[in-house]
Design goal:
This protein is of the alpha+beta class. The chain is built from three helices and 14 strands. Strand 9 and strand 10 form a beta hairpin. The structure holds flavin-adenine dinucleotide. Flavin-adenine dinucleotide (FAD) binds next to helix 1, strand 2 and strand 3.
Length: about 170
């Protein structure tokens, strides 16, 4: 029998981890599975951001990922030193892996690579097939025409993404 989910997230990097956190924070969390070919989520990164970088309300689901937090920081140049009293935070891969795995529970499939990614179907390298209402592909840069993250629309050959230059859509 083919397992069916509301969302199937292909790739366990930062993009799908943030999507997973936002979905898990819903009043009625949908059924989510995440497929990652590596042995843990998030690779090996430290992501930093200013408190003001986040959209309103996002702190609710991003805060659990924060490993370090500072009330402000100093910027140093050869002839200039400035203190910025703006809250600053860092997310580490280790923390992200721990928190997202706890949120998704058995929905995280580690050490499983996707071979075929379509609008509502994913086939893994070992031949297992998974199905979902929405498949979100974020297997790293360069996968779709816009790179980065995207989703498959109802025609398997059609790809929609948000690239660096704004929203794009191609068939
Ligand atoms: C505005 C901005 C700020 C940034 N700031 C920082 C920063 O401060 N520090 C920093 O380190 N980086 C920074 N980055 C870079 C950032 O780390 C990357 O953009 C981010 O990690 C990309 O995440 P991703 O999920 O798209 O891809 P990736 O991190 O590449 O994750 C893709 C995942 O998919 C998995 N995968 C690949 N193929 C398959 C397959 N066939 N089946 C299953 N899984 C597969 C991979 O193993 C990987 O885990 C920044 C980027 C931006 C745009």
């Amino acid at each position: 029998m083919v397992a069916h989910y509301d969302y199937l997230l292909v790739g366990g990097g930062l993009q799908n981890a943030l999507i997973a956190m936002a979905l898990a924070a819903r009043e009625r969390p949908p059924a989510v599975a995440m497929v990652e070919r590596g042995g843990h989520l998030g690779g090996n990164h430290t992501w930093c951001f200013h408190a003001g970088d986040l959209p309103a309300g996002a702190g609710r689901w991003i805060d659990p990922l924060v490993a370090h937090r500072w009330a402000g920081h100093e910027v140093l140049f050869p002839t200039l030193r400035r203190r910025l009293d703006v809250p600053y935070a860092a997310i580490t891969s280790t923390r992200l892996d721990e928190v997202v795995r706890a949120r998704l529970g058995g929905g995280v499939l580690l050490g499983r690579a996707a071979r075929v990614v379509e609008a509502h179907r994913v086939v893994l390298e070992d031949g297992e097939e998974l199905a979902a209402d929405i498949v979100i592909e974020a297997r790293g840069p360069g996968r779709g025409p816009g790179g980065g993250c995207g989703y498959r629309s109802s025609s398997a050959s059609s790809w929609r993404s948000r690239g660096r230059t704004g929203s794009r859509s191609r068939s």
